[in-house]
Amino acid sequence: MSILADHPLAFGAATVGNLYRELSDEQALATLEAVWDAGIRHFDTAPHYGIGLSERRLGSFLRSKPRDEFVLSTKVGRVLEPLDEVDGDDMAHDFAVPRTHERRYDATVAGVRRSLDESLERLGLDRVDIVYLHDPDAFPEGERAALEAGLPAVAALRDEGLATAVGIGSKSLSALEASAESGLVDVLMVSSRITLLDTSAAERVLPACERHGVEAIAVSIFNSGMLAKPRPASDARYDYGSADAALVERAHRIADACEAHGVDLPTAAIAFPLRLPAVAARAVSASSAAQVEQTAARASTPVPDALWRDLEDAGLIDLRSGAERP
Description:
Blueprint: E1 9-12, H1 25-37, E2 42-44, H2 53-62, E3 71-76, E4 78-82, E5 89-90, E6 95-98, E7 101-105, H3 109-123, E8 130-134, H4 143-159, E9 165-170, H5 173-182, E10 187-191, H6 205-212, E11 215-219, E12 237-238, E13 241-242, H7 245-260, H8 265-271, E14 279-284, H9 289-299, H10 305-313
Helix pairs in contact: 1-9, 3-4, 4-5, 5-6
């Protein structure tokens, strides 16, 4: 049974956890109201986002909505340990919140259970639909050890009825492929590897998903903002770092093709992931109601098939091999 097919556009709620900049409670609520008004009913959050702030704000909003009308996911793997006193801010992790807790990696059964219990308490809800093991590639003990402990732990949550589906969220192709092959997961959250600039997940991860009946959701589809505007800036960021000149030039060539077909670069970036096999949804984000409205409009804009053919003919995307183009 597909959990994503009826909700192909998700809202990533890191922004309402004060990602990069502070939002007031009123601004966060207005953003979430705009998401709901746009017809989006699929929400993703995590304890990591604003040290629980995203979960608290999102839960407060969703508690006013009929529970059977939305799909909600959160993540496990980082347990929040309270500090004795506030230790500055959390901008080292890109969140504009007071540093009231520290994150401790824990993929054990006990750690995963504790993480989900605490998430449900912050959300004020009795269940979530999807639980992801968050960034196993970042665990100090290594990716393989995190998967060996964490995959059975999240699978147990599903088997006991504490979640409808489970998976991992990662940008690591090796972690994603191993998880798809494990037989333990239902969904993969693929970060930055199913985009107009990087289709590397299509080479081995998505075929593994097809073989094992695993769905994928593409996140970070704008590649750290590179594809979020009709024309990328010369100092654009890419994959959490600075973009080199060749990559910016390639993005401009893709933008040229988009404009020739009457759409802009962000519109194509939102549409593109659903062209790939096993990809059932993609996630977008916003930090204001106006951004939500603009993104929702782009998501509903038809993109002509001829654009994809032109991009392939120009060597700018490769849907056959999934290789990242130079």
